[in-house]
Amino acid sequence: MDSFAQNQPQLAFSEAHAGEDPRFIFRRMLILASEDVGLADPNAVVVVNACAEAFDRVGMPEGRYHLAQATLYLANTAKSNSVMGFFDALSVVEKEKEAEVPPHLKDANRDNKGFGHGVGYIYPHAYREHWVAQQYLPASLQGQVFYQPSQQGFEGGIASSVARRREAQLTASVEGVGIAPTEVLTYGTTDRATERWLQRTLSQVGEQLGRISDRIFSLTQIQRHHVILDLNAGSGLLTWEAVRQVPEGGVYACVRNSQEASALEEQAAALPELRRPFVVASTLAELPNVLAASAADVRFDYIIGRNLLTQEPDKNIAVQKLAKLIPKSGVLVLAESVPRHTQRIYRWLEDKQIDADLYERLVMAEEAIYADSSDTMVNWDVVDLQKAFLSVGLSVQIFPERFH
């Protein structure tokens, strides 16, 4: 029934005219409603099934109305064969029969104590939007993508949301959070309060990454034809959103090493060649020279990044390097975590729970870590970044925000 994929109902009508059993035609149309229409119009299989049931009740010759209705509906609705991703997944799973199901997805009723089964599972419906960044694949399959939503019909409306959640989940996994816990062979008493806190914290990682990405792009006025540079692209959280927003422009993604570059290029292989980001493996110190050699004539309309400066030993030198990348009309938008303002462990304790002197020493010891002037992770604050950018002649706007 390839004619349906081309919005041409003539074949079904020809089969009916040739004496083909209408029930056989309905069977083929029910298959087509899922195989060739799928999520582009989830209602298609409902309509065809209803027409088939109506045909069985009415019979011939009036049942031809229902046959015609189902035929015309399929011929004119949006089409997508993204459901074929199921067979790709099935093929991979058959080849990976020895791969372990993540422990947090195993039956907690039987082996929770002995093997830690079910520990770390996060119940999606308990969180906003009923979704969390949680791993559902064995370790050997993590990062693989099977379902690729099309831009047709209903599916086109969810494609962007699916992509953003997938990117947030991948980023959370790459950065070491939201990963399935390993199976344990011993057990002891469980602190339920601590376990709930850990689950809540891990579940919020993907959501927070998505919010940070949204906040970065909300501070821009990106046009379809703009050229964007994503600094510290990592797993591509910002890169893929940039690709979506500049279909007529271009995206350059800077990563730290060849391993990250290969991972990003592998993900980009699913995109049309002209839409793929240009991936550059370079440190921030070498980036101006690398870009001068590979993209000398490129002028970036926006430069974006997340946690680019946090681990740079000398923030002033790093800012000077950044300034060389920004053209006169260009805009730099960064989201930086400030480690010295991170949550303190002692605040989870009450001074009445432990000896007062011990509590005071704990407070002093932890605060001393964040007051270490020789530690480049914590010896700076928002004001220091502002001064660094002003010193190279850039106008600066800073929006301190706290993510919980």
Automatic annotation (TrEMBL):
<feature type="domain" description="MgsA AAA+ ATPase C-terminal">
    <location>
        <begin position="17"/>
        <end position="164"/>
    </location>
</feature>
<protein>
    <recommendedName>
        <fullName>MgsA AAA+ ATPase C-terminal domain-containing protein</fullName>
    </recommendedName>
</protein>
<dbReference type="GO" id="GO:0003677">
    <property type="term" value="F:DNA binding"/>
</dbReference>
<dbReference type="InterPro" id="IPR008921">
    <property type="entry name" value="DNA_pol3_clamp-load_cplx_C"/>
</dbReference>
<dbReference type="GO" id="GO:0000731">
    <property type="term" value="P:DNA synthesis involved in DNA repair"/>
</dbReference>
<dbReference type="GO" id="GO:0017116">
    <property type="term" value="F:single-stranded DNA helicase activity"/>
</dbReference>
<dbReference type="InterPro" id="IPR021886">
    <property type="entry name" value="MgsA_C"/>
</dbReference>
<dbReference type="InterPro" id="IPR029063">
    <property type="entry name" value="SAM-dependent_MTases_sf"/>
</dbReference>
<dbReference type="GO" id="GO:0008047">
    <property type="term" value="F:enzyme activator activity"/>
</dbReference>
<dbReference type="InterPro" id="IPR051314">
    <property type="entry name" value="AAA_ATPase_RarA/MGS1/WRNIP1"/>
</dbReference>
<dbReference type="Pfam" id="PF12002">
    <property type="entry name" value="MgsA_C"/>
</dbReference>
<dbReference type="GO" id="GO:0006261">
    <property type="term" value="P:DNA-templated DNA replication"/>
</dbReference>
